[in-house]
Amino acid sequence: MLVLHRGFESGLQEKESSAAVLNKQTARQVQQLDYQQDKGIKEGQVINFVGTTQDNVLIWDTKQKLIYHEDMAVKQADRLNLLDSDKQQIQYLLDGNQKYIVATIKVQLLRKTYYISTFTDLNSVYVAQKRLLRDVQVNLLVLFLVSTVIIYILTKQILVPVHQLRQASQSFQTDPMGYQPLKPMRHDELTELVNDFNQMAHRIHAMVASERENAAFQKEFASHLTHEINTPLTIILGYAELIAESNVTEEVKREAVRYIVDESTRFKQLGSRISQLIQYDHVTLQRETISSQMLHEKVTDIALGIRQQTAHVFQFDYANQSDYRLHTDMGLVSEMLVNLLDNAVKAFPQQSGRITVAEDLDETGLTITITDMVMD
User: Is 349 helix (H, G, I), strand (E, B) or coil?
Assistant: First the structure.
């Protein structure tokens, strides 16, 4: 707009300069004609010379009375304000559809003084200004439309990572374990945001996986713990029922009481180990030296306790017994034997069966084999 304004002012100044120069030239020519005659030129000669030299001109006498005019100029005569000044006057007549610039100059001759007003049409300047303004408006409109399209395309390109993040966030909320990391498409702040989101998703993924693993471990732990508790309790209950029978000898009762006391002590140790496992995530082994006889008696006690409580009928015996000494945790060994023997009994169908325990001692260690067989 500043360029338009300057261009418009330049056009007006050009018209103003042209009008002023033309009026000065006419005035000089009239003065030269006047000086060439001794008594000066007459009014008619002034009117005739100026009228033929210029178009759209007014001539005033000394009393500022209009003595010559043209049809176009006379309509604007009343709008002029003549000043008694030797300097040329410039006036703008901008009212209405016709716009003019009027240059008025005072011409002093031998006989009289005249005022010559030259009219210059400014419509061409205004038309050019309007045309240029219209062109600028069209160009601005085209520029606006092009800019809108460019901004739209750039905005879509900029918002692509944002849309990807939104879709990834929704997908991650639905299935955090199936989330696939986003691949950055360029290097800018949005890419850093995508990388941060991938890192956050990775950490949450690891946390969810850890929580699920812990939940599965807790479920498995609860299942094993229930089995670890139920099986010894079943054996203890079997020995307790054995004590209650009337035809049981005192020796058998003493053995039953001993086993119940041993199992109760082992339960206490089991509770302590569970507490260690929960608090410290590990269990301290309580190693001791045990003889083969102690292990044989423990296996026999467990088998008899299971047989006393279960509905299955089975026979139990040792295929062979070795003589040895072990340095181990008797509580854990007992838990293992209880689980193995109990699982062997549960594998029997409704008919009776046989459980055989065999031992194999060599330089690598002791191997205990428990075999369950269905008897016809």
Answer: coil
> Are 77 and 58 a contacting pair, CB within 8 Å?
yes
Per-residue pLDDT of the chain (376 residues), as tens digits, is: 566 667 777 878 888 888 888 888 888 888 888 888 878 888 888 888 888 888 788 888 888 888 887 766 667 777 777 777 778 888 888 776 778 888 888 888 888 888 888 888 888 888 888 888 888 888 889 999 999 999 988 887 777 777 777 777 777 777 777 777 777 666 667 677 777 777 887 788 788 788 888 788 778 767 776 766 776 777 777 778 878 787 878 887 888 888 788 777 777 777 776 766 665 566 677 788 888 888 888 888 777 777 766 666 677 777 777 788 888 877 777 778 777 777 777 777 666 777 788 888 787 878 888 887 776 6
Contacts of 352 (CB under 8 A, 6+ apart): 312, 313, 314, 315, 374, 375
d(CA 13, CA 283): 104
Reported pTM: 0.40
Closest to 335 in 3D by CA, of 232, 230, 205, 233: 232
- Cβ neighbors of 372 (< 8 A, separation 6 or more) are 314, 344, 345, 347, 348, 353, 354, 355
Q: Domains of the chain (ranges plus CATH)?
A: 2-121 (3.30.450.20), 214-374 (3.30.565)
Nearest of 232, 289, 290, 294 to residue 266 by alpha carbon:
232
Would you call 50 exposed, middle or buried from its count of C-beta atoms within 10 A (0-12, 13-18, 19+)? buried
Of 182, 177, 170, 181, give the one whose Cα is nearest residue 205.
177
Locate tokens 């099986």: which residue?
231
Which SS3 state, helix, strand or coil, does residue 289 take? strand
Three-class DSSP category at 249:
coil
String of DSSP letters for 153-211: HHHHHHHHHHHHHHHHHHHHHH-GGG--PPPP-SSSHHHHHHHHHHHHHHHHHHHHHHH
> What are φ and ψ of residue 69, in 5° steps?
-155, 160
Q: Which of 265, 273, 269, 299 is nearest to 221 (CA)?
A: 273
Closest residue by Cα to residue 6 from 187, 132, 147? 132
For the chain, the 3-state helix, strand and coil shares in percent, each to the nearest 5, are 60, 15, 20
